[in-house]
Design a protein that fits this description.
This protein is rod-shaped. By secondary structure, the chain is mostly helical. The chain has a domain at 21-94. The protein is built from 2 helices and no strands. α1 (9-35) packs antiparallel against α2.
Length: 110
């Protein structure tokens, strides 16, 4: 099994997720603004549901932002780990190559 990921994959994903998080926050604010004219137009169970939505809209927004923040934190941590691992692997390879005796591996008759 081969796992191949470009060096910029996670940083690109991180930027896209951040953009999606911003977009989601904007959409929720637009939804709240769009339903504002409906306030006071319902009675009974409809009014209870509408008032509940309106009352919980800020909490829903905060919960979604918190969840996305956790995702962004995870992606950032993965990006840092992969970057560190890539750098360490490169440094180890250079160090090992520097200590190797390539002349001893020649098969010429000299």
């Amino acid at each position: 099994m081969k796992f191949d990921m470009g060096s910029q994959t996670l940083s690109t994903l991180l930027k896209q997720t951040q953009g999606s998080s911003d977009d989601l926050g904007t959409l929720i604010k637009q939804l709240i603004a769009a339903v504002q004219p409906l306030e006071g137009k319902f009675n009974g169970a409809g009014r209870i549901a509408f008032d509940s939505f309106k009352g919980q809209a800020d909490q829903i927004t905060n919960d979604l932002n918190s969840a996305l923040s956790g995702i962004l934190g995870g992606q950032s941590g993965m990006n840092q780990s992969f970057s560190t691992g890539d750098t360490e692997m490169s440094d180890t390879a250079r160090s090992t190559m520097g200590a190797a005796n390539f002349d001893a591996a020649r098969f010429s008759g000299r």
